[in-house]
């Protein structure tokens, strides 16, 4: 299989896996994604969240409003721009995110145990390291491109 065919098969397979794992979610995917970004990246603005999710500001704002109403995120004045709010994960939000992640990991762990023999589980474990390297490469390129754009460098 050539690299382009492998890339397409990998993209399709990972996409289906992600959708299958998310089937156990108890909250909308956009809201879970926002909680995840706030957990990993710390306080962010609604505009930051929209950019990270690849959605409109309005879409992110609706999710933020719903999460705020549920007490899962809270806004505070931005230290550098009083017109903006920095959004933070609350303890309740962190707990809810932990539950979502536990559900996902549990469903995936069960599927791994039921589907693979010990040798296949070992191969899968080794593949995770390869996928992590691939992700680092892709996200590193995106971060470099975003930085270049922010400072006006155009390749």
Task: Describe this protein's structure.
This protein is globular. Helix 2 packs across helix 5 and helix 3 crosses helix 4. It has about 160 residues and is mostly helical. It is about 70% helix and about 5% strand. Strands 1-2 form a two-stranded antiparallel sheet. About 15% of the residues are buried. It is built from 6 helices and 2 strands, in the order ααααββαα.
Order of neighbouring strands in the sheet with most strands: 1-2
SS elements, strand count: 2
**Average pLDDT number:** 90
Number of helices: 6
Sketch the topology as an H/E string, one letter per element: HHHHEEHH
Helix content: over 70%
Quickly give the structural class.
Answer: mainly alpha
Largest sheet: 2 strands, antiparallel
List unreliable stretches of 5+ residues. Answer: none
Topology readout:
Layout (H helix, E strand, L loop, with lengths): L2 H20 L6 H13 L4 H8 L3 H13 L3 E5 L7 E5 L1 H25 L2 H33 L5
Antiparallel strand pairs: 1-2
Helix pairs in contact: 2-5, 3-4
Give a concise summary.
72% of the residues lie in helices and 6% in strands.
Any descriptors?
single chain, 155 residues, mainly alpha, two-stranded antiparallel ribbon, 72% helix
């Amino acid at each position: 299989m050539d690299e382009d065919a492998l890339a397409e098969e990998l993209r399709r397979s990972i996409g289906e896996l992600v959708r299958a794992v998310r089937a156990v979610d108890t909250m909308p995917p956009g809201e879970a994604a926002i909680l995840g970004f706030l957990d990993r990246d710390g306080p962010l603005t609604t505009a930051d969240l929209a950019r990270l999710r690849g959605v409109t500001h309005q879409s992110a704002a609706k999710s933020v409003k719903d999460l705020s109403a549920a007490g899962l995120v809270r806004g505070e004045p931005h230290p550098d721009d009083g017109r903006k709010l920095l959004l933070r994960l609350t303890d309740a939000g962190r707990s809810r995110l932990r539950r979502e992640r536990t559900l996902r990991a549990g469903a995936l762990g069960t599927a791994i145990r039921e589907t693979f023999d010990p040798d296949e589980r070992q191969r899968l474990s080794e593949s995770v390291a390869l996928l992590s390297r691939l992700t680092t490469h892709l996200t590193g390129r995106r971060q470099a491109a975003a930085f270049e754009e922010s400072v006006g460098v155009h390749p």
